[in-house]
Design goal:
The structure holds two protein chains of two kinds. By secondary structure, chain A is of the alpha/beta class. Chain A has nine helices and 14 strands. In chain A, helix 3 packs across helix 4. The chains are: A alpha/beta, B mainly alpha. At the A-B interface, strand 4 and helix 4 of A face helix 2, helix 3, helix 4 and helix 5 of B.
């Protein structure tokens, strides 16, 4: 085990314990914001449950840090249920999280559209309803790289998840009711589109092997957040050329009105430095303005990652006054903090 | 067949997925996210532990216990899918202490129905249904035709293998492989593959505890 671990170029004690040990570390680093319930394997806002406040929980496979545990705190999530790396959590975690945060006003489950997440959250919502907790669920599916049709599992949930958690979390903090908070998650999802590219695969700690091999000079277009191959491979061009492809994919699907104000979220996949992410943002900003779209808010950094994958994604959210105000509202979590 | 058949079935699955873990991981890495082998090993390890600490439940209750254990330990899609499948199958047997070939058909038919319902998949979508549905159909045909349970299960396992191989040229339209579109063509589906292991394990269990 020790030798295998050293071969991996990862900081590990035991690959089987990586999620638990990381969650314990997150809680140790942010005692003022969150607590870690090791038995249930959930991260819970320190002051939960808050009486009368609608609670938000999300969850999914680990390996996307800071998503979701890093977004638990004031103005965002009330709890996060991390599964094993790239594996959906189990219903028991979601039920424990739902019960831990329910302040009587209801609980919103924010679910990324992956078969495992959807099935496990569905079973958990049924269990919670049996226990008399009001639960609504919204499935996030913003990835334009996946064809959406009745005959597929549909689009993946990616960057819009972060934006929905922030915006709906702000509304819940401000006293919005369950219907309103649920509607905001839906609205953010409806008005967001994402597209991701990768320059490398990633190495899950359990297998120790890269999920795919990408020859030098090639780029995967239309990747998700699990190290899975994208829809097609192409020769890697300049950053400007790559951003042309990304912006075209997102804008042609979102179809923002001319003069629209948007939030542009340039996200790193874990192995791309901020140096390059800002370079990408500069290109995105320029190309959006040229297309008649105004990026009035932005988020640049690695917020929904795929372990150490080199790559980036763009999420555009078409804003209105209400969404902008909620985006600007105070947030205090391990990974996002402003206004406090 | 009785409780020992079920216990032996679950043990054989545990042994098989452990032996084939890397194979499943590889298949899944090609068109999914590479966690299928690890998930199945974690799940059936927990199932064997749960059955070990069970004190003499009838076969139906053992299947329900196994299903509940999968739901609560696996995550991913395979946890809820196989978990619900075994629970639905177990409910068919109620509290009875033994079951025959006909009843085994109904157990697997209920399992298949629950997988299709929860996963909304059909044959041809490149999923575990491609292996499970032909297996259940052939099992029923053989049992109806008067074959011994052992022969019928062997034929069902063969049908599952055929279904598994038939997933290779398919384009996935359900599950995570569907995100790849055309690039999923040419790869054998990991869910259909582990379904074959589960039927091979059943064949072994029926042989040992007829």
């Amino acid at each position: 085990m020790a030798i295998e671990t050293r071969k991996m170029r990862k900081f590990l004690n035991d690959p089987a314990q990586v999620v638990k040990e990381s969650l314990a570390g997150l809680a140790a680093a942010h005692l003022d914001l969150v607590r870690y319930d090791a038995a249930a394997q959930i991260i819970v806002r320190k002051d939960a449950p808050r009486k009368g406040k609608v609670a938000l929980i999300s969850g999914g496979g680990s390996g996307h840090e800071p998503l979701h545990g890093g977004f638990v705190g004031l103005g965002m999530l009330d709890a996060a249920c991390p599964g094993e790396v790239f594996t959906s959590p189990v219903p028991a975690q979601m039920l424990a999280a739902t019960k831990a945060v329910d302040g009587g006003a209801g609980v919103v489950h924010i679910v990324k559209n992956y078969t495992g997440d959807v099935l496990n959250f569905k079973l958990a919502a049924e269990d919670a309803a049996d226990e008399g907790i009001k639960v609504t669920s919204v499935v996030i599916d913003d990835d334009v790289a996946v064809q959406d049709s009745l005959y597929t599992a549909g689009r993946r949930g990616v960057g819009a998840t972060v934006l929905a958690e922030k915006i709906a979390g702000a509304a819940a903090e401000g006293g919005a009711d369950l219907a309103k908070v649920t509607d905001l998650v839906k609205r953010v999802n409806d008005r967001s589109r994402s597209f991701g590219v990768a320059l490398s695969s990633c190495v899950p700690p359990a297998s120790g092997k890269a999920i795919f091999e990408l020859p030098e000079g090639q780029i995967e277009l239309g990747i998700g957040i699990h190290g899975e191959p994208g829809r097609r491979r192409a020769d890697l061009g300049s950053a400007s050329e790559v951003v042309d492809v990304i912006v075209e994919a997102v804008v042609s699907d979102l179809k923002p009105k001319r003069g629209s104000k948007v939030l542009a979220f340039v996200n790193g996949m874990g192995g791309t430095p901020l140096l390059e992410l800002y370079l990408l943002y500069g290109e995105v900003d320029k190309k959006l303005r040229a297309a008649g779209v105004e990026p009035v808010r932005n988020l640049v950094g690695s917020y929904i990652t795929s372990l150490e994958m080199a790559g980036a994604s763009l999420t555009l959210l078409e804003l209105d006054e209400e969404l902008t105000k909620l985006w600007d509202a105070p947030v205090h979590t391990p990974a996002l903090r402003w206004g406090v | 067949m009785d409780a020992a058949t079920i216990t032996s079935w679950m043990r054989e699955i545990d042994i098989a997925v452990r032996a084939e873990r890397d194979h499943l991981v590889q298949l899944d890495a090609a068109i999914g996210d590479g966690d299928h082998g690890t998930n199945m090993v974690r799940g059936f390890e927990a199932v064997v532990q749960a059955l070990d600490s069970d004190g003499g439940s009838p076969p139906g209750k053992l299947l329900i216990l196994a299903g509940r254990t999968l739901v609560s330990t696996v995550g991913g899609a395979s946890g809820p899918l196989w978990g619900s499948a075994l629970r639905s199958g177990g409910r068919v047997l109620g509290d009875q202490a033994t079951f025959d070939g006909m009843e085994l058909v109904e157990v697997l038919a209920a399992a298949l129905a629950s997988v299709k319902d929860l996963g909304t998949a059909a044959v041809g979508d490149k999923t575990m249904v491609d292996a499970l549905e032909p297996a259940v159909r052939v099992l029923r045909e053989r049992v109806d035709g008067g074959a011994s349970t052992e022969e019928a299960v062997a034929a069902a396992r063969e049908a599952a293998e055929g279904g598994m191989q038939a997933t290779v040229p398919l384009q996935a339209s359900k599950g995570r492989a569907s995100y790849l579109g055309e690039r999923s063509i040419g790869h054998q589906d990991p869910g259909a593959t582990s379904t074959v292991f589960i039927l091979r394990a059943l064949e072994q269990a029926v042989k040992e505890h007829p």
